[in-house]
Input
Amino acid sequence: MKSENAVIRQYLGEVRSCLNCPRSVKAAFLKDLKEDAVLFAAQQPIVTREILCGRFGTPREIANGFLDREETALLLQKAKKRALRWRIVGILASIMLLLAFVYLLHIIYETTGYITVSDVY
Output
């Protein structure tokens, strides 16, 4: 028999495949659903897909009712925050790479006294 975590993962995977929304919104929604499912599973002696479907609904029911949820605005907010974090990480990584490149050029210049195109490539 599958462990509870495997059953929850499979259930969430089915929900994920049924949802038709931006990835960031989907991730925020699935994170909340996973927390609810884990809390529910901790209170049950055994957890099956059928038990999860009875408690939360089938993956198709969840997907159909997703846009009707009152938390959709909250999920959109969470998704925007997550997207903003990734943009900031990307910008910081780009800056770090640029600084590393400039430092490398500085080291080449200091050791050779000049920089040629062949030094850069």
In short: Residues 33 and 116 are 57 Å apart (CA to CA). The chain has a mean pLDDT of 84. Residues 4-120 form one domain.
